[in-house]
Amino acid sequence: MECTEWKNDPAEPAPLIAKAPRELIYSTGEMADLTRAFDWSETPVGPVEQWPDTLLITVNTLLASRFPMFLWWGDELTQFYNDAYRPSIAADKHPRALGRAAIETWPEIWPIIGPQIEAVMTRGEASWHEDQLVPIYRNGKLEDVYWTYSYSPVRDADGTIRGTLVTCSETTQRKRLEIERASLIKELEQKRAQLTDLFQQAPAFFAALRGPEHIFELTNPLYQELIGQRHVIGKAAREALPEADEQGFLALLDRVYQTGEPFVGHGTSMHLARTAGQPLEERYLDFIYQPMRESDGTISGIIVLGVDVTESKRAEQVLIQTEKLAAVGRLASSIAHEINNPLESVTNLLYLVETTSEKEVRLQYLAQAQAELARAAKVATLTLRFHRQSTRARDTSLPEVLEGVLTLIEPRLKNAGIRVERQYGTRRQITAYEADLRQVFANLVANAIDASEHGDRMILRVRDAVNWRSGEPGIRVSVADTGVGMSEMTRRRIFDPFFTTKGMTGTGLGLWVSAGILQSHNAAVRVCSSQRPERRGTVFSIFFPLDAANPGTH
Ligand code: ADP
Ligand code: MG
Questions:
Q1: Partner of 399 for a Cys bridge, out of 193, 246, 393, 424, CB 3.0 to 4.6 A?
Q2: Can you point out the beta strands (E) in 101-160?
Q3: What does the alpha-carbon distance between residue 539 and residue 482 come to, in Å, rounded to a whole number?
């Protein structure tokens, strides 16, 4: 059996010195080349061939390592470092740091590292520093550099401390990211807190719904108030608000989710359970269902945002009622007149019937009386119908509605000496709330009379028309007069509530109410007016789409 024995004999040191000095540095790489080429005889460590083994071994180990290393050797702390360390000192110190004394290279951090090196050199205390900020001159300025490093003593065979070996890695990049992330997180948290505050305190109700089932993710106090403090978070909207489903709001949410088109409700009526066990309460809401999109564009939820406008809506209804009463008041005199005249005739005719013996003549008088009564009955019916609320939109002939209005207003027109021209050229009907439209036309005609003088003309026109924007078919109604016209200032304000130029006799609500009614019919109004003598007058022109009062299609 053959054996080889490994012998560690200190009496026979490895014959390093026998080699040429340049061959004593073994590694390859830039720092190895520089270390080989360096004239060490000018430094306290002396020429390479005189280096003690410990230094040679340490330097060779350091140069071969892929981990950043730095060595301070001897009393002057002469410096060695490897390729891995080089990027951390950049051109400001490299390559001048090689072979130099520590304090010449590191004056800016000497207060930090001086004592640490001293602890190693004098007491052999190794140290470990993690992510320590040691700002150094680099890239022409003092830079915040973070290091994780260990200082350890390099000892001779006899235990004498000869140098300090630094094994380190620069952690600036990571630390910077960490700091950035920390400040970003803080910033985000602040933003989130701000947003939460905003939602909590916003004078609007707010809810966030997730997914196709519209799961409640977030609600604010006003939203909770609206839905009677029900617990909805985590629940699907269908389950959480069953009454909203019945009123078609869930279908709207589904549509927004599928099409990505937001939905806006103006003064929309919604019946909600505001207190458990109590009957539903009607609220009027201005709101938007806004789709939420992910970064890739897909819809992931819906934001519900809105305000409860119930109070202002109720106030508005009072005003609408006021204008209706005013309209009735305006009509009252002409109606009284209209009914009174036939009744007077009837009285007279009946007297004649009594005093006449001839049968033929008596029948003639009776027939006349009947006709007069029929006229009075017609006026009465029209009057009664005038303010009857229509709850359902019906097929409506606009010329008929206009004629109904004219029948009641005729006496005023006659008194005022205004000629009426009718240009009706349509057989189409529109789906509409007839009583509401009657109110609109009555006000337009009344306004035209107010603006006219004896001898003026009023032209009522009803024509088939097309919405030039959408190509949609409809009907255009215009009410034109040759009256005094309006100034630019007046024209701009006529739809404002309470705006009137008629002093105590006007309410200033007629056109404001009309605008609301026309809006609910998806109709568009255009007003032209002139005060120039040669073309004096005003034209109100209204376009109605055929299915005017059908909210689903507009
Ligand atoms: P009111 O008739 O009670 O004044 P409206 O809202 O109906 O209230 O009309 C507001 C104002 O618009 C009128 O006071 C008048 O100044 C102006 N206006 C409306 N129609 C006409 C018209 N055909 N010619 C001139 N001015 C008009
Ligand atoms: Mg008016």
A1: 424
A2: 127-133, 136-138, 141-143, 146-155
A3: 9
**CATH 3.40.50.720 given to domain 202-308:** no
Ligand 2 centroid, distance to 533 Cα (angstroms): 23
Which one of 154-168, 196-210, 335-349, 354-368 scores highest in mean pLDDT? 154-168
Domain 393-554 has CATH 3.40.50.1110: no
- Per residue in 511-545, pLDDT (tens digit) is 988 998 898 899 999 999 999 998 999 999 999 99
Q: Are 7 and 44 in contact (CB under 8 A)?
A: no
Atom of ligand 1 nearest to the CA of 490: 16
Q: Which CATH architecture has domain 21-170?
A: 2-Layer Sandwich (3.30)
Query: Residues within 5 Å of ion ligand 2 by Cβ?
Result: 443, 447, 510
513: nearest Cα among 432, 467, 444:
444
Q: Where are the domains of the chain?
A: 21-170, 202-308, 310-388, 393-554
CATH 3.20.20.70 is right for the domain spanning 310-388: no
Which of 330, 511, 531, 540, when mutated, tests ligand 1's pocket best, judged by the most ligand atoms within 8 Å of its CB?
A: 511
pLDDT in tens, 143-200: 888 989 999 999 999 999 999 999 998 898 888 898 889 988 888 888 888 877 877 8
Pocket test of ligand 1: the residue of 440, 500, 536, 538 to mutate, having most ligand atoms within 8 Å of its CB, is 500
Is residue 554 very low, low, confident or very high in pLDDT (cuts 50, 70, 90)? very low
Burial class (CB in 10 A: 0-12, 13-18, 19+), 480: buried
